Amino acid sequence: MALRAKVIYDFLSENQGELSVQEGEILTLVSEQDVEGWLEGSNSRGVRGLVPATYVEILGHDAALNSYNTSAEPRYSNVPAGGFAQLENISKPPPVGLTSNTAPLQQHHNNYKQHSQGSDDDWDDDWDDSSTVADEPGTVGGRYRDSEGNGTSTYRVTTHTGQRGNAMQTKSSATVGKNLNRFSTFVKSGGEAFVLGEASGFVKDGDKICVVMGPYGPEWQENPYPFSCTIDDPTKQTKFKGMKSYISYKLTPTHTPNPVSRRYKHFDWLYARLAERFPVISVPHLPEKQATGRFEEDFISKRRKGLIWWMNHMTSHPVLSKCDVFQHFLTCTDEKAWKQGKRKAEKDELVGANFFLTISTPPAPLDFQEVESKIDGFKTFTKRMEDSTMQLNATINEFARKQMGGFKKEYQKVGMSFKALSQAFEMDQQTYSSGLNHGISFTGDAYEAIGEYFYEQPSKDLDPIMDLLALYQGHLANFPDVIHVQKGALTKVKESQKHVEEGKMDRAQANGINDRCNIISCATLAEIQHFHHIRVRDFKAQMQHYLQQQITFYKKITGKLEEALEKYDNL
C-alpha cells in the first residue's frame, strides 16, 4: 500500500535530488520518516526526489483513502476509524521502505551534514558547554522574586481543561482530535497543543507580548524605547595560537554605552533561539554561510551588508527588539554573564505551546471568516511577491553582469576605435588638424572612462537592491509555516463547532478553543501588518536610493561627454 501525501505549498527545487512540486499535487512517499526535515517521494509522472516535510500533508495509505469502515486504520486523520473512542488505541503500521528505499534521502542528509560541518563557524569555543542553568541572583527554584524579595513576580497561566482545585469541569462526549502527522508545522510549533488546551507555564509581566487594535487591524504594540544598532569594523582574529581564525564585528547599539564584539556564529545561535521562541513571527534570515573564501574582502563586505539589513529588521520589530535573548546579545560584555544568559535562553520554557500564553489580545474577538479571508489574501500576495522578487533578482543580476562585462567592453571598443582614428589623422602632419586629432583622442578616452563607470555602477545601485531582495526572500520563505499554524487553529475551531452542533461537545469547551484560536489569529495578523509596514518602508527607501544613484551615474556620463565636446569648440 502506497503512502500518499498532499502538497500544501509550492516548492521549487534548487539542488540536485530535490523535487519541484505544486500546491494540491498528490505524491507517493517512500517513507513517513524524514531526515533533517526532508521526505522522499515521487509525483504522478514518476519523477522522484526530495521535498520539505513541512510542505506536505501526509494523507495515509491507499486502502485508508479508498475505503471508510471501522476496520481501516487511517494514519493521519483527526478522527480515527471507529470513532473518537478509538483515538488512544490506534496502532501504527511499520514504516514503508525504510531499509531499502531511503538511500537518496540519506545521501541528501549526508550532504547537508557535510556542508554544515564545513561551515565557517563551528561551535568550538569555551562558551559552547553543556552545563545546566546556574542559579542566578533574584531567583528561587526557577521563579523570580520581585524587587523587594517578597515572593515571585510570575503568575501561572494554563490552558488545561479539567480539574482545578475542588472543581471539575463537565466532561464532554467528544474532543477535537489531534493531528497524527507529527511533521506538521502546526504540531511542531506547539500551536495544536495550545489550541487544545495543553499549554501551562509561568509568565512574567516582562514576557507579555501585547497585540493592540490599530486602524488596519491587529498590530504589535510598539516598542516605547526604539533604538538602532550599527555593525562596523569586521576584523580577522585568531585563537588557539593562530590555529583558528574568524571575523568579528563591532556592534554599537544606540541605547547602551558600550559596543560588543560578535562573531557570525553568535548571530547564528541567536537566530536559532529566536526561530524556536517565536513560531508566528518571521525572524529574518541571516546571510548564508560560506565554507571557502570567507576571509576575502568582497565576501566580508557583502556579509557585513547582509548583517546590517538583518539588524535593521531586528531592531525595527516591536517584539523581537524587546526580547531578552536579543538584548543579551546586544549588551552583554562580561564572559560569565554571557554564558549564564546563553544557558538561560536555551532552557527557556516559553517556547512551543507556552509561547502563546504570553500573548495579550484586544478585548473584542476577531471574526474568523474575516480572518480566514485576510490570511488567504496574504497567502496569494506572498506567492506573487515571491515569484516577482525571484524574477527581478534574476533580471538585475543579469543586467549587472552585462554592465560589468559587455557594456564595459563595448564602450571601450568604441573608445579604442576613436583613438585609432585620431592616430591615423596624425599622419597627415598638418598643424591645423592637431586640435581635431586631440579632440578625437580625448573622445576615445571619454568612452573608455564611461566603460569603467558601467563596471563600477552595480555595486552602488543594483547590489543594494539584490541584498534587499535576498532578505525579503527569507521572510517570504517563513510565512508558509506561519500561515500553516493559523490555518491549523481555524481547522480546530471548525471541528469544535461541528461537535457542538452534533451535541458531542459542550459550548464552554468549544469557546475555549475559539479563544485560543483568536490569540493565534491576532498574533498572525499583527505579524502580517508589521511585514507590510517594513516592506513599504524598505522598498520606498531602496527605490529612492536606486534612482538617485542612476541620476548621479548618468550625470557623470553626461559630464564626461560635455568635457569631450568642449575640445572641438576652438578648432
TrEMBL record:
Gene3D superfamilies: Arfaptin homology (AH) domain/BAR domain (1.20.1270.60), Phox-like domain (3.30.1520.10), SH3 Domains (2.30.30.40). The keyword Glycoprotein does not apply. Residues 111-173 are annotated as: Disordered. It comes from the Eukaryota. Residues 1-61 form the SH3 domain. It is a peripheral membrane protein. SMART domains: PX (SM00312), SH3 (SM00326). A 1,2-diacyl-sn-glycero-3-phospho-(1D-myo-inositol-4,5-bisphosphate) binds at residues 263, 265, 303. Belongs to the sorting nexin family. This is Sorting nexin. The gene is SNX18.
